[in-house]
Design goal:
The complex is a heterodimer of chains A (207) and B (357). By secondary structure, chain A is α/β, with parallel strands linked by helices. Chain A is built from seven helices and six strands. The chains are: A alpha/beta (207), B alpha/beta (357).
């Protein structure tokens, strides 16, 4: 008996959707069904928007944030930023939460990931050389940058990346800092786990 | 106290539900019927760790995709849903994100089994695991330190291995970034292990005399043997050429050991089988007493088929030495030994082919 399967177009759609992060075979199938049933023009719009985004969006050569073709970088070109502080983050999506905090007015640098030897990601795969160049830019190698803030994940890979950058940058005579770890704002002690509390205690400050 | 235990697609059990009393519960059956898996289930539920394996895939019943464990400990209903790649934890049906939060509500456990002989005869990894399992229950944050150390070690070893295989040198700064994490967490591991063995050593010596009775003329002396006695910074710097050559991190707390001597003679080489068994039991008894002391309540004792192997005198002495009022789950092939024993089981379950009655 011949095996019944979806037509090749449907199978191709499902297998493409399955490549998206966090999407398994079952979810991909559900999404494909939805797309094919939809009569509101989603498929056409989505295809066009995807194509445009892929074609026109690249990483800013300076900071690594999303850059739309023919436009200036929204991060680097913003006026009134303090140019002597750079905040280093892993992904472009880390920039906006820091912006929303309203507590930082310096420049950003997106690494595009973190060191992960187990996934074969080394320093050359990250935008570390670009960060280096940004700091040494200027005549005769002197720099306007006085502080680099490392806003990286608190896991082992993030910690290793922070160590790497600290060692790379410290001989330049600029101060390298990292975000403090501690209690979430507005949270009671009873909601904090032991490790967070231990770090909050370790990082306590005099009043 | 653990008052119930439920298993779903765990090892050879499709589904099982049993109530557990405060005293001694015995699981009786032939070999290979699943008795040990029941103790393993209790250990997993309370400590999220199995004495038999580190792979969750082995815990899932053949042909199934996930297992479930649940049970009431004190007033809290503990639950684990596990698959080869994932693990979900619950307290009273509320999801718990972090293992540390889960373990904080859970009880302390001591496992005694025939494989404990590995503590004396086996490689250093058995003794490190013993120290780690004890420290993790006594010292908050120890397990988190250990996991971060291990994670950084895997990454560092990968860098060294890849470089050694391609006959290149790894990027010094990347290697260093991981070395610093090893130093940070490794130093804490060494400090905790040092203080642990300081309190453990006299407890083990006492336990050894308690179990051995007049037969144990020698004194058991466990000594912490860190892989290195210089600072970790210096250690890793000195070992770098060897690390590069061999393509792995050749020294550090992951190579620590616990030396066991009986009157200054290594127990592994000079002890008889009986002396070695007493030594292994003494270490576990000392662990139980230390946990009892620190928490104020005795730990749950999981006794896997140990009584059949002991002569009546040592069996009686061991049972009398266990922390007073401790809850015990034990497995055995027969209960002949229990007739004149101070630990006559309060509840007896027969285990046969993945079912109990």
């Amino acid at each position: 008996m011949q095996k019944i399967d979806y037509p090749p177009e449907v199978r191709a759609l499902v297998s493409q959707l399955k490549r998206l992060p966090g999407i398994g075979a079952r979810s991909a199938e559900r999404m494909a069904v939805w797309v094919l049933q939809d009569r509101g023009g989603f498929a056409e719009d989505c295809a066009r928007i995807l194509g445009e985004a892929a074609e026109r969006i690249s990483a800013c050569a300076t900071c690594g944030f999303y850059l739309s073709q023919g436009n200036a970088c929204a991060v680097c070109d913003a006026s009134g930023r303090e140019v002597n502080t750079i905040c280093v983050v892993e992904q472009p999506t880390d920039v906006l939460p820091l912006e929303r905090s309203g507590a930082f007015s310096g420049l950003y640098h997106v690494l595009g990931g973190r060191l992960a030897p187990l996934d074969n990601i080394g320093p050359e795969d990250l935008r570390i050389a670009e960060l280096d160049a940004r700091i040494t830019s200027g005549a005769s190698g002197e720099t306007a940058v006085r502080e680099v803030i490392l806003a990286l994940s608190a896991d082992v890979e993030g910690e290793a990346t922070a160590n790497y950058l600290a060692e790379l940058l410290s001989p330049r005579g600029i101060s390298v800092t990292r975000l403090a770890q501690g209690l979430p704002a507005g949270g009671g002690l009873e909601h904090a786990d032991a490790l967070t509390l231990a770090r909050a205690l370790g990082g306590r400050r005099a009043l | 106290m653990l008052s119930s235990l439920r298993l779903q697609d765990f090892r050879c059990f499709a589904s099982l539900n049993c109530t557990i009393g405060p005293g001694t519960t015995a699981f009786v059956g032939e070999n290979a019927q699943g008795k040990t898996s029941l103790l393993e289930a209790a250990c997993m539920l309370l400590r999220l760790s199995s004495p038999r394996t580190r792979s969750k895939a082995e815990l899932v019943r053949f042909g199934e995709s996930r297992f479930g464990l649940a049970g009431k400990f004190g007033d809290t209903e503990l639950k684990i849903l596990g698959s080869p790649r994932t693990r979900k934890l619950y307290h009273d049906a509320t999801p718990i994100e972090k293992a540390t939060d889960y373990l904080a509500e859970s009880g302390l456990v001591v496992w005694m089994g025939n494989s404990d002989l590995d503590l004396v005869q086996g490689t250093s990894s058995a003794r490190r695991h013993y120290l780690d399992f004890t420290a993790a229950q006594l010292t908050p944050g120890y397990l988190a330190n250990l996991r971060r150390y291990e994670s950084a070690l895997r990454s560092r070893n990968r860098l060294l291995r890849d470089a050694a295989r391609s006959s290149t040198t790894p990027d010094t700064r990347t290697l260093d970034a991981y070395t610093q994490i090893l130093i940070l967490h490794g130093t804490k591991l060494i400090a905790t292990r040092t203080t642990l063995v300081e309190t453990l050593a006299p407890a083990a010596a006492t336990a050894h005399h308690d179990i051995g009775g007049t037969d144990a003329l020698e004194t058991l002396h466990p000594t912490y043997q860190p892989a290195t006695t210089t600072s970790l910074e210096e250690t890793f710097a000195t070992a770098l050429p060897a690390d590069l050559r061999r393509g792995l991190t050749t020294t550090g707390p992951h190579r620590d050991d616990l030396a066991l001597t009986l009157d200054a003679r290594p127990a592994a080489r000079f002890g008889s089988e009986g002396q070695q068994r007493t030594t292994a039991l003494a270490l576990k008894l000392a662990q139980a007493r230390l946990l009892h002391q620190s928490r104020g309540t005795p730990p749950l004792l999981l006794l896997d088929d140990i009584f059949g192997e002991l002569d009546p005198a040592r069996r009686r002495r061991l049972l009398q030495s266990l922390p007073q009022g401790s809850q015990k789950l034990l497995t055995t092939t027969h209960l002949d030994w229990a007739k004149d024993s101070p630990a006559t089981p309060d509840t007896i379950y027969q285990v046969q082919n993945g079912t109990i009655s």
